[in-house]
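By way of example, what follows is a protein record of this kind.
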Amino acid sequence: MDNKVTKILQLGRKIYQCRREKHFSQNTFAEMLGISREHLAKIETAKRCVSLGLLIDIAENLNMPVKDLIDF
């Protein structure tokens, strides 16, 4: 597996972990972000790349800096 794919997988897992730590369901968190639950599920499972704008929204809604999501 190449390094880029590994990083995308790690980012998805990190988003999933942080969302769960905040006790947000996928539905609730997706609504907070203004996206579908399916879109969020694909991001968390690395089936879809997240845009920078959405990554910023995710970090803000998790009350953390973006760098903490991508520090792997």
Remarks:
- The chain has a mean pLDDT of 96.
